[in-house]
């Protein structure tokens, strides 16, 4: 077996990366060569590069505004962050003296052509142009495009065999294929401390994700601290002192995400997945009956009581004061009807209202009320696909998340045929693990690969990688997410034609080593190593 040495500013990665095929008791090893140094992940839309290189004076390197550029604190903070990344990642390398006749780059001139926006949003623009030659420049109409361009520039830098930090002459024009590129975390099955969430946001920014979908509460626990209903966390959290998210905690997450161009969308899933809600809000859940009597157990939120909707309105009003995004995820999935069916009061209410047939009609009543409440408060909303499958009437701006993996293409076709926008997560449940390089299947799934018109395909906003928390906490969150989520990131950012796993492997291996270098504990793709990885553990 041979090893291919490749030093990169953020990688310093020697890859003995191999494919093995088992035939009987023999193992055949084919070593994959690493990609060109300074490869970018996700792959830009338009990229050209030459063998000409420029020395980069890393210890003195600076990002500077052009004379015509708009300025803002968000961008100034980004400059500091990336200058620190560059310096810290070469601090352990003895860089050789640059001869005076070697062309060098000491600055990247940044031209932000429009005033900064305060928060990323569903209509944010992220395109940018990056040119590295005798003069290095980065241009974008928006601060979000500048952020993506800074990340790309940081990945272009590498170290030559003589340990000189260099960058190739490069021209890039780049933009995302999909507007919604998310990662979903679950903080109800296992509580995730703030540092784990912030580390996830850092890794997301390295892969150009732009949405953190925060599934913050569920059956198991209610860690969200509500000002209007404090008993929800006092009685519903695993521990009301240590396993909670205060307003200050959430503000810290949102600010950290904002600085990286990442939206934070909360999910409060109901009427199912709400056992923990009932611990702090008596009368909210439906009493279940056996043999004509309450049996002491409770089912989904009771949709027949006016008090239910007063509660939801007050809670969501509280949430709206904390989370700044225009969207809330309302859930609506996996509602079990047997408890509703067992309760004679529910049955009588349905009869009085002339609601007949499947109990999904009762779910429709609840979801429709919650949708109306959300709109009154000022939220646009996302729902899981069951809401549409069960026939709830929704507004034309509803976003439907397709998560069931049996026939996701058919579901996307159905949703978009109704004129509704779709987010796809069905093929990207990264909490499910399998032996081998399962990133291949994540990389090769295309959200627009369904039987539909061009107009329907334009309604696909993008997708997200989900990491549900039944078997995931802070100890294994990052290794299970990365670099498997990186495969999703490139699928959602890069051109549709960028789909060859063999071509992607060496670049993804570099990206994994880059994340290791930056302190993200990303698991290996396959056989090989990053020479610096031992320094982080």
TrEMBL record:
It holds the Pfam family Glycohydro_20b2. One of its GO terms (cellular component) is lysosome. Keywords: Disulfide bond, Glycoprotein, Glycosidase, Hydrolase, Signal. GO terms for biological process: carbohydrate metabolic process; ganglioside catabolic process; glycosaminoglycan metabolic process. Transmembrane segments: none annotated. Residues 40-156 form the Beta-hexosaminidase eukaryotic type N-terminal domain. SUPFAM superfamilies: (Trans)glycosidases, beta-N-acetylhexosaminidase-like domain. The active site is at residue 334. Disulfide bonds join 72-116, 288-339, 513-530. Its EC number is 3.2.1.52. It is an enzyme of class 3 (hydrolase). Residues 178-495 form the Glycoside hydrolase family 20 catalytic domain. Residues 1-18 form the signal peptide. GO terms for molecular function: beta-N-acetylhexosaminidase activity. InterPro entries: Beta_hexosaminidase_sua/sub, GH, Glyco_hydro_20_cat, Hex-like_dom2, HEX_eukaryotic_N. It catalyses: Hydrolysis of terminal non-reducing N-acetyl-D-hexosamine residues in N-acetyl-beta-D-hexosaminides; beta-D-GalNAc-(1->4)-alpha-L-IdoA-(1->3)-beta-D-GalNAc-4-sulfate-(1->4)-alpha-L-IdoA-(1->3)-D-GalNAc-4-sulfate + H2O = alpha-L-IdoA-(1->3)-beta-D-GalNAc-4-sulfate-(1->4)-alpha-L-IdoA-(1->3)-D-GalNAc-4-sulfate + N-acetyl-D-galactosamine; N-acetyl-beta-D-galactosaminyl-(1->4)-beta-D-3-sulfogalactosyl-(1->4)-beta-D-glucosyl-(1<->1')-ceramide + H2O = a beta-D-3-sulfogalactosyl-(1->4)-beta-D-glucosyl-(1<->1')-ceramide + N-acetyl-beta-D-galactosamine; a ganglioside GM2 + H2O = a ganglioside GM3 + N-acetyl-beta-D-galactosamine. The keyword Magnesium does not apply. Belongs to the glycosyl hydrolase 20 family. This is Beta-hexosaminidase.
